Amino acid sequence: MQDRIRQLLVEVPPWSAYSLLAIHEQLASLSSVDELTQWLRGLRNAIPLMPPVLLAISGRGRYLPQLHRVIYHDWPADWLERYDDPGFRSADPILSAPAGQPVHWSAEFARLKRPTLSQRKFLASCRNNGMTHGVSFISDQRNHRVILSLSGQRAEEDAQLIRMIEMVWTHIVQCARRLLLPKNRLFELSPRERDVVELISLGESYRSTAAALGIDETTVTDHVNRMVERYGANNSRHLVKILFSCTD
């Protein structure tokens, strides 16, 4: 990693190295979500012709449809409203793309040689909303992914900007984790409690949850009531929000 950073420092103008050191110090000093949002807004304003930015925490693997929080964005509101739908979001190949290297959207979309019906609908929506080009930076954190995305064709073509973000990406991730990443509340649950919560979070009723797990509906109710009391929730919906929240 250090060799990669040194290589990148050689490839960018000298002033960029000083800017990167300042960015590292700024991120380390942030103490709230509001400050992180302000910092991202300042970065967006400081870089000429900076493409639209989005920073988000997404679920990973089995949690992909359930957990998604946008920390900062200057993307179209109607696109984000559509993207908030778990079914729509799950069809996005960028969310499941490999971490570690910048992901170019157009290349990732082109790899879908035999897309599913939901993926075809997603790609059509991308074309209709001008979201076919962009670049994403992804970091895996256990059952979560931290994702920074820049939209637009210029984002894919600006090699210097991509290199600079690569150099500060680790520090952005560390800051996001420190301020936003949940304390793995799902792993505090018993396997049965986790099964119950996951099904309820997907919209299943107590009855259908009981049928799926092969237990009585009363047992499901008892599990939920104990968790509601343990986490100070108002009801089952509030419980799901607490357990899948991206804040402490």
TrEMBL record:
PROSITE patterns: HTH_LUXR_2 (PS50043). The keyword RNA-binding does not apply. Pfam families: Autoind_bind, GerE. It comes from the Bacteria. One of its GO terms (biological process) is regulation of DNA-templated transcription. InterPro entries: Sig_transdc_resp-reg_C-effctor, TF_LuxR_autoind-bd_dom, TF_LuxR_autoind-bd_dom_sf, Tscrpt_reg_LuxR_C, WH-like_DNA-bd_sf. Residues 182-247 form the HTH luxR-type domain. GO terms for molecular function: DNA binding. SUPFAM superfamilies: C-terminal effector domain of the bipartite response regulators (SSF46894), Pheromone-binding domain of LuxR-like quorum-sensing transcription factors (SSF75516). Keywords: DNA-binding, Transcription, Transcription regulation. The keyword DNA-binding applies. This is HTH luxR-type domain-containing protein.
